[in-house]
Amino acid sequence: MPDFDNIRLEKGLYAGGNFTAALTSADPDEKYKGTKLEGLDAFQRQLKRFGIRVSGASSDTVEKFFSTAQSSVLFPEFVARGVRAGMEQADILPDIVAVTTSINGRDYRSLSSVPGNEDRELKAVSEGAFIPETHVKTKENLVTLRKRGRSLVASYEAIRYQRLDLFAVTLRQIGAYIARTLLSDAIDVLENGDGNNNAAPVIGTATPGSLTYSDLISLWNSFDPYELNTLVASPDMMAKILNMSEFRDAAAGLTFHGTGKALTPFGAKLIRSGAVGQGKIIGLDKSSALEMVKSGDVMTEYDKLIDRQLERAVISCTAGFAKIADGGAKVLSL
Q1: pTM of the full structure
Q2: In angstroms, rounded to a whole number, what is the distance separating the alpha carbons of residues 101 and 292?
Q3: What b/e readout covers 280-307, taking b as 16+ CB neighbours within 10 angstroms?
């Protein structure tokens, strides 16, 4: 018999860093298969339990969370989910990150394998002969993890009558700020390396100060044996690219006007970002260029959000980036 309405909610559920996981452990989703609650996660079932509507024209006000001591425990998770939604909407990291690694601490060393040309060749091996080796080792320097966040400042009296769907807009904006800052960190590592002497090679244009389609072809051609499948361009370089005649064919124009996403004639995904310096394009092999390292998920100061009813609470995310393959990213610069 589903018993989500008998779960005791307390601040200790946040201690492990993942409120929903702790709540799901006490109230497994499997119990609700075949019921009208199937499809809701443990947090959403608790919202239903206390009759808290967080979206739509009939959404409740912030004070609904604080109607009981137990329902107030849900508020930090509501805040965290709003921030995560904003991060996902503004996030282009999935387009440039090959793998995401989650850790529990702050110290992490990524792996390094830098094979030479001969090491990449799988030559015929005679019976009983030595088989060539590929050496994989940890990098010399640790991945730098930075805590990025915003401080949410408001009194309970100031927001208690605000609708939750309107309040969520502010939370999504905070998430977007964090996502853009993380992107800046990622671009910096792609371009300048992660502290292990692995900055991206810089390729100049044929005519300094100008960009031609042949420059892009040269960049694409330099990636062998990797694949150039993603281009991250500064706004000014994005404009130069889109004004090239090669990007005005019917198929490319239809895709851009219909979706806002630009595809290059040689198949690489084209992304605009102000995090890239003026006059630069970063080309990368998305499958092997960058690793994202996260220490936990979006964190909220739940004590302040529950006991002090906001006042000032920090919402943060701790993450860093590491280069995987040294040849997986290159910079084209005017």
Answers
A1: 0.83
A2: 6
A3: bbbbbbbebbbbbbbbbbbbbbbebbbe
Distance CA 80, CA 75 (A): 9
**What DSSP assignment string belongs to 160-201?**
TTSBHHHHHHHHHHHHHHHHHHHHHHHHHHHHH-SSSS-PPP
192-290+326-333: CATH homologous superfamily?
A: hypothetical protein PF0899 domain (3.30.2320.10)
The amino acid occupying position 78 is: F
What does the chain come to in residues?
A: 334
Q: Where are the domains of the chain?
A: 4-94+156-187, 192-290+326-333
CA 110/CA 139 separation, integer angstroms: 6
What residue type is assigned to position 76 of the chain?
P
Asked if 330 and 165 count as a contact pair (C-beta separation under 8 A), the reply is no
| Under 8 Å between Cβ of 78 and 34 | no
CB 329 within 8 A of CB 200: yes
Q: What's the Cα-to-Cα distance from 7 to each of 3, 238, 276, rounded to whole Å?
A: 7, 53, 48
CB 23 within 8 A of CB 43: yes
Q: What is the pLDDT of residues 222-281, one digit of tens each?
A: 998 899 999 999 999 999 998 888 777 655 555 555 555 555 667 888 999 999 999 999
Tens of pLDDT, residues 48-94: 999 999 998 899 999 999 999 999 999 999 999 999 999 998 889 99
With 0-12 CB in 10 A as exposed, 13-18 as middle and 19+ as buried, what is 116? exposed
Q: How crowded is residue 89: how many other Cβ atoms within 10 Å of its Cβ?
A: 11
The dihedral over CA atoms of 242, 243, 245, 247, expressed in degrees to the nearest 10, equals 10
Six token digits for residue 69: 């001591």
